[in-house]
Amino acid sequence: MVQESDIKPHTSSSRQSTKSTSVESAEDRHCTSIQSFWNFAFSQNKVSGMELCPSPLGLEKEYATLFTTDSLHFLHELISTFDEEVDEILQLRVSKKAQLDLTGDLPSFLESTTHIRRDPDWKVLPVPSRLQKRHVDIGDLAPCDTEHFIKALLSPAQGIQVDFDDGNCPTYYNQIKGIYNVFKAVHNLFPNVPHISQAPVLMLRPRAWNMVEHNMMVEGKEAPGPLFDFGLLMFQCGKALFEQKSGPFFYLSKVEGYMEARLWNKIFVWTQQKLGLPLGSIKATVLIENVLAAFEMEEILYELQEHSAGLNCGIWDYSASFVNKFGHRPAFLLPDRHKYVNMEKHFLRSYMDLLVKTCHRRGALATGGMAALLLPEDPLSDAYRRVLASVTRLKLLEITAGVDGFMVYDLNLVEPMQKLFKGHSEGDNQLDQLRNDVTVFPEDLLSMPSGGVTLNGLKYNIAVGVLFINAWLSGKGHFFYKGQVEDSATAEISRSQVWQWVRHQTRLEDDGRVVSRQLVTDLIKELIMDLSPHCGSVRQRLHTAAKMFQEVIAKRHFPDFITTYLNQDHTFLSSQNTEPLQALDKDLRRSKL
């Protein structure tokens, strides 16, 4: 078994190792010699063409464990090999969006890839046994939260979405701490935690292509965030996961088309060759979180045939992508999401049905979204029964659609949802549900639900947007509000809707008022007044978050991602600390504000 003390930074041409049978203490972790640290930090700059910022305070040993000379050479080669292609796919996104805007066209199934969709013979390679049965995974788990991560490893869930994306705030501290915690789990260094081969399978979710790592420069450019995450995880954990028949398995976020899947496939092939792993060792589930990707699902599976673990369908990032791509068009006005948008609406049900049919036709797994609701503490309360009934109804919809699994955030929902899945399906998965009854046309995927905008819906979206930015400024990627977890996906749909409603001067159903910047400003002031008693010393941060939200919803041109906007903002960059938001979280978790 690998011990943390076996892995040392290279301070000379020879590698020294000291074996230990125990995990280092917290005191050891925080008492690394400052002189040794600076010597090590200096040694990193000897990797030609790479600059790496020194360790965040308190993570010197974690930093030294992860950033060995070998791992840095690997990262340099990985990033420099694919950097131009990353830029190309980001430019392709801009080009596609400009083409849609200039022509007024709508997306459709591609004529150039008709032969792929019509060929009945190709299938993805079967997934390993550990992926065959994943009825209930834990979602949105930021691995920098050590306590939550360990609880998940001890849970009866079949998998864990180890999230460096939607549920995580990508501070340097969080990325290093999170990847290090994955390292500890994979190498069985957490005491009293199941062996990695017996623990819930780790589904590693690196950042999406829109994110960069500010703390690493490669050949004079900031490193792409997903390559930083993926590269470190593979170098430090890939072989061990493969040897234990427990990975390496990934989620790929915010893929917008098959060309992006092709790039990921090239990265997988290159990485496996470099690390001496067999072709097809890496398996990845692509999250279909963008309306354009919904028209290229078969092509995405085709590009990842040897490496596919299937596709995933969600609701809020996907819905927000309509505003991203078509939000300036009146025909695509998205109504109040709480009152009029759910997976039973035609455009979302068509998307889910098509995803299941596409996956199962090609032998791939289809997974559903995450239940964000939190179970109240008292299992005998009416509130507990209402929440459980609500989650049950929505997840039963996914099971009957043929999904092979889904996610929950609350660990207390794992066992009830596993029982639900077992009671309404047979076997490890539902790959035999081919859904030949489903036929989906472009207009099915593009039909907006009817409905208007309510004052409550506007207030809720404002609250989620402001509080998400507030969480990011505190170094957290999610928070609790009114009985559920909120992350970048719900922040994305919230700020998207407010931007769109202001842009189209939409009128409220309640009293006919126009949704304007002034109305949003007034409602933000009300929100701040309501939250002030819960804020204590973080009141100024909340005011800063409110101002940033006002900026983003008033932009002339829609910012593609709220996370990109925040990640490039000087206010966030200058506020990267670990000050906890626990006091505010505790009050908001079941707030009736």
SSE blueprint and pairings:
Elements lengths: L25 H4 L4 H11 L5 E3 L7 H7 L2 H35 L10 H5 L10 H4 L3 E6 L4 H8 L5 E5 L8 H15 L14 E5 L6 E7 L2 E4 H19 L5 E4 L5 H18 L7 E6 L2 H4 L2 H7 L4 E6 L2 H11 L10 H4 L5 H16 L4 E6 L10 H20 L3 E4 L5 H10 L18 H4 L9 H19 L5 E3 L2 E3 L1 H16 L13 H19 L3 H15 L8 H6 L2 H4 L8 H8 L4
Parallel strand pairs: 2-3, 2-11, 3-4, 4-7, 7-8, 8-9, 9-10, 10-11
Antiparallel strand pairs: 1-5, 5-6, 12-13
Helix pairs in contact: 3-8, 4-9, 4-10, 8-9, 10-12, 13-20, 16-17, 19-20, 19-21, 19-22, 21-22
In DSSP terms (H or I, runs of 4 or more residues), the helix count works out at 25
Q: Mean pLDDT score, rounded?
A: 90
Biggest sheet character? 8 strands, parallel, barrel
Strand order of the largest sheet: 2-3-4-7-8-9-10-11
CA distance, first residue to last residue: 51 Å
Low-pLDDT stretches are: 1-44, 577-583
Rg, Cα atoms, Å: 23 Å
What amount of the residues lies in strands?
Answer: 5-15%
Given helix and strand content, the structural type is alpha/beta
Number of strands: 13
Give the overall silhouette: globular
Q: Helix amount, in percent? A: 40-55%
